[in-house]
Each structure stands twice: as C-alpha cells, then as structure tokens.
Amino acid sequence: MQSQAMRQLDRVIRAVAAKDVCVTLVGESGTGKEVLARRLHDLSRRRTGPFIPINCAAIPEALFESELFGHEKGAFTGASERARGKIEASHQGTLFLDEIGEMPAGAQAKLLRFLENRRFMRVGGSEKIQVDTRIICATLRPLDEEVRTGRFRADVYYRIQGVSLRVPPLRERRADIPPLVQYLVAQACSVHGTRPPKLGRSATAALRAYDWPGNVRELRNAVELVCLLREGKAVRLRDLPPVIQSAAPVSAPAESSQTDPGDDEITLPLDMPLDEIVRRVLQAALRLEGGNRSRAARRLGVSLRTMQRHAARGPVTAH
C-alpha cells in the first residue's frame, strides 16, 4: 500500500502480531478487515495453525451456540452426528469474530464464559474442552460506543479489550487505489481466465476521484466487471459504471507523447491547428493498432486511402 495511513497501520500490525493480545479492527464494511486479520494471523506464532472466521451478523440466534461451540449427536432435532464448532476448530490458531457488535445478547453471555477460562462444552455435551486460540474481532462501530448505547455487553467488551485499530475507508487513502486496481485486475483475470484490460488515464483518474462508499468490496466488483467486458482492451471513462464516471475530474488528465498504448482517449488544446489535431489522432490510432494502418483506418471509420493521404502530408508513425 502507498498511503501513509495504511503504512502506519501495517507497522502497528507487525508490532502486535507476535503478541497474543486480542485485536479489534474497526472500520466500514468492505475496508478489508478480514484481510488484515489474516495478516495478523500470518505474522503471529500461530501462523501454522488454522484461521477460523465467523460472521456474527449472518448466523440466526437459534443456531449461534451450535455454530460457535459445536454439538453432540442427538443434542437437538437434526443433530444426527457430533459436530465441532468454530471455537474448537480454531485450536492453536486464530478465531476471527467478524461483526462482533451484531452478536446476539444470549450468545455474548455464552462467549463470556469461554473467554474467562478458554473452556467450553458442546451443546448437549458434558465434557469440558480446553482450547488455545487467539481472538481477533472486527466491528463497524467502536465497541465502547456499542457498550454506552446498551447494544453490547460491557463485561464481554472488557474481556476482549486489547488493541483497537481503525481501518480507514478507501476515500481516505486514494493513493492505494491504483495498486489495488492492479492487484484486483490480476485476481479477476486469474479467476475468469481473461486477458487483463488496459486502464486509460481518464478512467484511472475517475477511479481515484470516486468516494467508494462500498470500499474495497465495491472496487473489486467494478474491476471484475471491467475485466469481463473489456478483456484485453483499453478501458476508457465511458466504460466505467455511470456513478463512477460522474466522479471524474472536470478536466481529464492530459496525455503526453508517452501515452499509454492502452488509452484510446486523447486530450488536445483548443488552439491546436487542425492539421496537427488530425496527425495526433492518426498517431493515437496507429499506436492502438500496433502500427497497422488498415486496422487504424477501420478504428477511425475512414478509408485506408484517407489515412495514406494524411500520412503523405507529414510524419504519421506509431511510437
């Protein structure tokens, strides 16, 4: 990452990863909290153990205890065999409690008992099981605020209180957008078996200017769409979703003589002579078509003869 905020966050993560302290990651949805939790795990002494995530907001309250602690055969209707819970599966590794602020109150009370001595019983069981696991939490809102409003138990909060790290939203770290786009393009093309598109300057400027309320998750979706629709082609401003287009700077970035061959948009001064404008447009088309005049003519919607006639008036070459 290139932004100062993320470099500072990474320094803190490196410092606390080796310590077996509970870490709470606070940030908006889609900021990459699970990615950072995995990084904490990978840098810790538990790196060879399992990393077990559980989304506390996605589990119905009636199933939460079984999901967390597991159950014995016959513990309830449908329990046809013994099942290990997430806590037991995280032994000698890391348990990641995502969106812990959404955990039902009843489940919070049961979690508290486990946090006190790291022992629990499966649902329907009588044997106490000891587990060695590190707890990492994630939440949209700071847990101390949730405690003040009565939405989260204070005793659980004080048990897991350790290091709290704020994960900044993407709009506060725009310098990270270009490298993130490169990474997400490579990831999407690997998944779908497509050739990577070539992002033009105006498209890149729009990506950096947009506020990304959905953060990295929204950026991933936009990049994946572009990879599918513009496989191996230049990505222009008009190829992006309208909401991102609307965030583009009023004046598009000027293209230098070293224009990216993947960018088929050019910006020209209004006082440039017409002959020079035509020459530059022809050069841009030739660059996009690898110097092939026939294909460049088709791209511009002109005849090869017209292309050759203008070429005869001055140097038109593919740089």
What brief labels describe this structure?
319 residues, alpha/beta, five-stranded parallel sheet, two-stranded antiparallel sheet, 14 helices
Secondary structure: helix percent: 40-55%
Shape summary: elongated
Strand content: 5-15%
What is the CA-atom radius of gyration, in angstroms? 27 Å
What's the order of the H and E elements?
A: HEHEHEEHEHEEEHHEHEHHEHHHH
SSE class: alpha/beta
Low-pLDDT segments: 254-264
Task: Characterize the biggest β-sheet.
Answer: 5 strands, parallel
Kindly report the spatial arrangement of strands forming the biggest sheet. 2-5-8-1-9
Distance between the termini: 32 Å
Average of the residue pLDDT scores? 86
Count helical runs. 14
The number of distinct β-strands equals 11
Classify the oligomer.
Answer: single chain
Give an overview in words.
It is a single chain. By secondary structure, this protein is of the alpha/beta class. Helix content is 44%, strand content 12%. The chain contains 14 helices and eleven strands. It has helices at residues 4-17, 33-42, 61-69, 86-89, 105-117, 143-148, 154-160, 177-192, 201-209, 215-229, 242-245, 274-288, 293-300, 304-313; strands at 23-26, 51-55, 70-71, 83-84, 93-98, 119-120, 129-130, 133-139, 163-166, 198-199, 234-235. The strands form four sheets. Strands 2-5-8-1-9 form a five-stranded parallel beta sheet. It has a two-stranded antiparallel ribbon with strand order 3-4. Helix 1 packs across helix 2 (33-42), helix 8 packs across helix 10 (215-229) and helix 13 crosses helix 14 (304-313). The two termini are 32 Å apart.
